[in-house]
């Protein structure tokens, strides 16, 4: 029973997602279903569209492995889903999609130091072939500081704990003990 709608997209949305939609006004114009005035053209547009029509359009090329957040997921996950779907239109045009399934990703994250708590830029490599996430202390290092097997890895958003809205806690097994690293990136994408 959503009380909000994006009259520019023709969809009904929950209260939590309405705030995210309001933050992208160039794409989504939000109104209350019960409190705001609706003109005939807006009502007609909503009636001729709706969530199922929007889903068919905006998710037509969504990769089958892509996680679709629900209202129970954290704000960051829902925001990036909404931005990917409606703002970047990644699931309409496959050429706009990040190479999620390319099997190899390399980039830099800010990692919190174990001793001093200072965040430093570190190179991370995600390799499907090796089934591992690796990070390096130096950009030109030949050997990784840590190799985390994907099958023994868990990642959760922890913005409050890390002090960044895109904060991530990565928990993994090493030598039969649980280890944690804390990372973030300026871009939630």
TrEMBL record:
Domain Arf-GAP: 1-99
Molecular function per GO: GTPase activator activity; phosphatidylinositol bisphosphate binding; phosphatidylinositol-3,4,5-trisphosphate binding; zinc ion binding
Entries under Gene3D superfamilies matching the protein: Arf GTPase activating protein, Pleckstrin-homology domain (PH domain)/Phosphotyrosine-binding domain (PTB)
Alphabetical list of PROSITE patterns matching this protein: ARFGAP (PS50115)
Signal peptide residues on this chain, from the entry's feature table: none
Membrane-spanning residues: none
PANTHER family to which the protein is assigned, alphabetical: ARF-GAP WITH DUAL PH DOMAIN-CONTAINING PROTEIN 1, ARF-GAP WITH DUAL PH DOMAIN-CONTAINING PROTEIN 1-LIKE PROTEIN
The protein, known as: Arf-GAP with dual PH domain-containing protein 1
Species in which this protein is naturally found: Pelecanus crispus (Dalmatian pelican)
